[in-house]
Amino acid sequence: MLEAGFWGLVGGLALVIGAVAGVVRDVPARVIGGVMAFGAGVLISALAFELTAEAFDASGGREVVLGLLGGALAFYLGDRMLDSRGGTDRKMSGGQQAGSAAQGLVLGALLDGIPESVAIGVSLVDGSTVSVAIVAAVFLSNVPEGMSAATGLVKAGRSRRWVLTLWAVVAVVSGLAALLGYVVLGDASASVLAVIQAFAAGAILTMLADTMIPEAYENRGRSVGLITTLGFVLAFLLSQA
């Protein structure tokens, strides 16, 4: 249980690391876009081989389809609701958050981070060690997320203290989400675990398509595809090691 919470916190702390980089230095938009593209590729690989494939092997196609569609729909509806409360463009680096409500920004950050943490917690349920590929993917994708969002929030007029506090809170909640995911699902059947794994994968994939990849393309341009593929290849090799 504590191990799940620890690794969830590690993934969440990557947001703080990225946020510190974003508020201390004015990171060029092209750099942010490139790092986001790489992180997206890493995370896509983890979703495919560490979550979806394992869920399919454990329980079959029905549970995987239900989980993927459920996770995608849940994130989509949650994101739409938070957009109406001021969470729009929460990860953008150009200051588009100006005028956004603090509540919407905070809840949006939590919405983005919780599925990843639950995925980390679930990877420990069967008694094995934590999935290195999932933790690495979450960490490498969270650094540019925190960097981009922090840069944009500072440009939008938020104080550095407010920005760093936001990501510190998200990091703590990420650890708690991983811990709770392990506790709640510790005695769950293979079918239930498969649905939850696929649910997390669907939510994360929808988040990537909705926020990270568009931001990466806007800042980096056509090279995003190549950089994303490079991240995917690295994470794939890590998952096979």
Description:
The protein has helices spanning 2-24, 29-59, 61-87, 102-122, 132-155, 160-185, 190-220, 224-240. With 241 residues, it is mostly helical. Helix 2 (29-59) packs antiparallel against helix 5. The two termini are 25 Å apart.
Strand-helix topology:
Elements: H1 2-24, H2 29-59, H3 61-87, H4 102-122, H5 132-155, H6 160-185, H7 190-220, H8 224-240
Give the tags.
83% helix; single chain; 0% strand; mainly alpha
Short description:
The chain contains eight helices and no strands. The protein is an all-alpha fold and 241 residues long.
Number of strands: 0
Judging from the principal axes of the Cα atoms, what is the shape?
globular
**Low-confidence runs:** none
**Helix content range:** over 70%
Q: Kindly state the mean pLDDT as a whole number? A: 82
Report, as a whole number of angstroms, the end-to-end distance: 25 Å
Q: What is the SS-derived class?
A: mainly alpha
The whole-angstrom Rg is: 17 Å
Name the beta content range.
under 5%
Largest sheet: none
Give me the strand/helix succession.
Answer: HHHHHHHH
Count of discrete alpha- or pi-helical segments spanning 4 or more residues: 8
